[in-house]
Amino acid sequence: MYLKNSKIIVIKIGSSLLVDNNKKIRKKWLSSFAKDIQKLKDKNQKIVIVSSGAIALGCKKMNFNKKSIKLDKSQAIASIGQIELMNLFSETFTKYKLNISQILLTLEDTEERRRSLNAKRTFENLFDLGFVPIVNENDTIATSEIKYGDNDRLASRVAQITNADTLILLSDVDGLYTKNPKIFKDAKLIKKVDDLKKDLKEINIKGINEYGSGGMQTKIEAAKICLLAGCSMIIANGLYTNPISRIIDKNYCTWFSSKVSKLDARKKWIISSVAPKGAIIIDDGAKKALRSGKSLLAAGIKKITGKFNKGDHIKILDKKNTECARGLSSFTSEEIIKIMGHHSNEIEKLLGYVTKSEVIHKDDMVEL
Hints:
By secondary structure, the protein is an alpha/beta fold. The chain folds into two domains: 2-260, Carbamate kinase (3-Layer(aba) Sandwich); 272-367, PUA domain (Archaeosine Trna-guanine Transglycosylase, Chain: A, domain 4). Helix content is 38%, strand content 19%. The chain is globular and about 70 Å long.
């Protein structure tokens, strides 16, 4: 089963999995889900949960009908429901000795490169600490223009940022069907999608339920983002108890298989930058190190041009000003001016704070 080889897994759970049609919290389901997460963690797999439910739980607490709430009011309701949501996770996950943290994101956090880089580092640090990050769209400040509008696409962006191997969208349907299964009896489940364009030509399904805002169309959009990032995706029915174990044991779901390696996807993204923000000129020793697949360190830098921030695209030039690589800088141009020509163990002293040792990490660099 594909999941066994996934080092980083992002799991998205919809509101309808946490709150049933009678506005009752599905505590038994959440316990079974926590047990599934514990099993994955025991195999040293890193897990991120993207959860809807803040507005649904806020409505439950205030006894409001979600459908009649306007955006500005829903932001206040989300603020009330967010605490309910995290308390619910905390109570349940603690029983399985799972440590959780909370990350609230808006669309801008993932679209702007520098902010998405900061988010990526936060995820990496939480993984190192053994925590399970729980992500939600920051409904309290998101406006209609910058909202994801659904957590399927948010989950795909999180999968992209964390460099995940697999995204699992747990929904109220078994997967992608040839027709809408709620209307047509002869609808067949599509088990595997290898070619998004070819396999989905004839399909147009929209699933609507009271609490969720994403239909099948948003799941297809999420798949597009994932597959281009070298991350595979699963749509499965999360209404059953132990939903992840069910995917592993029964394989009853739709599997979108990415044909792009994660590294290839990243490198294509780097090389496709139209306007690098600056350049770093390196010595022959550093050039030789890059050729043998090593990261760029401060010691090999002779000069820089341009003004840039962390995460910006920059060119790497040799002494003859010939471009030999491109990459994403781990430092600002001002920081590089202070540390260039120095050994990595001097960086903390020169800058006055702890930071990375690589100016450009090998995974964030493409040789030309």
